[in-house]
Amino acid sequence: MKECLVVIPTYNEIENIEAIIRKVLSLPALFDILIVDDGSPDGTARRVKELQQEFAADGFAHRLHLMERSGKLGLGTAYIAGFRWALGEGYQYVCEMDADFSHNPDDLVRLYDACARGGNDVAIGSRYITGVNVVNWPIGRVLMSYFAGVYVRFITGMSVMDPTAGFICYSKTVLTAILQNNIRFVGYAFQIEMKFLSWKYGFRMTEVPIIFTDRTKGISKMSTGIFKEAVFGVLQMKIGSFFRHYIPPGKEPKPVVVTPETTEALS
Ligand SMILES: Nc1nc2c(ncn2[C@@H]2O[C@H](COP(=O)(O)OP(=O)(O)O[C@H]3O[C@H](CO)[C@@H](O)[C@H](O)[C@@H]3O)[C@@H](O)[C@H]2O)c(=O)[nH]1
């Protein structure tokens, strides 16, 4: 059985890609990797292919996968494409993680355990569940991230302390339910939308404390467009939620089968 896939979106991560892949593959063997690369001009995908060849010679090519997309289509759509692939391949759990070591790959085990052994459907690697655990971000970025959380909690009513977190483990059940929806955000607001939908569907969610350490190699792809999408998008998302019902899989009303007996019973 395929147990857990770590989806890593990449755009120009040539300085980090090999190290992060080798680190994840050094963890317990239940973690496979899917890199979703958006045509990185720096050759990130090419390096992944070289590693795939090396691993094939060692007999574990099945643990490293690559999805190449035509251009920079956004973090959210990269993850959605990765999640759909994971469900098609039959993985039980799927993790999100950045390529740049700002998330410590060792914490994957804690996130996975919180779901697989802790009975949760969503385990969030949380920077703010025990104070503020962010290292080396400029103070402006820490404040923006922290108050984005306050804003999201105020607008949505969802009590998650780190709604913009990008280090998460999902069960296949929650992803199956969420992906029935059109995920509207392409940038980092996608992270908020995923948690909001998990919460609306009533899935069990937990926050696992982590320390987020800013990257030392390569640059962040955060932009003002991504920021605006999050600010206005959260409001749209909340308003939109008034007009729909969220029914988790298995809880859908059973269709009534009409037979002569049921017709008689109804009359
Ligand atoms: N495929 C693809 N990957 C992308 C894209 N944009 C960013 N990425 C990849 O997504 C990961 C995160 O991007 P960063 O640009 O390093 O994010 P950050 O500024 O450090 O933001 C962190 O904080 C955000 C808000 O709290 C988080 O939402 C985000 O996940 C991340 O942890 C990296 O692996 C990066 O290469 C894209 O358009 N396409």
TrEMBL record:
Signal sequence extent: none
PANTHER family: DOLICHOL-PHOSPHATE MANNOSYLTRANSFERASE SUBUNIT 1 (PTHR43398)
Keyword annotations of the record: Glycosyltransferase, Transferase
Any Pfam family the entry gives: Glycos_transf_2
Species name: Larkinella bovis
CDD domains per record: DPM1_like
InterPro entries, A to Z: DPM1-like, Glyco_trans_2-like, Nucleotide-diphossugar_trans
Stated family: Belongs to the glycosyltransferase 2 family.
Domain Glycosyltransferase 2-like residue range list: 6-173
Protein name: Polyprenol monophosphomannose synthase
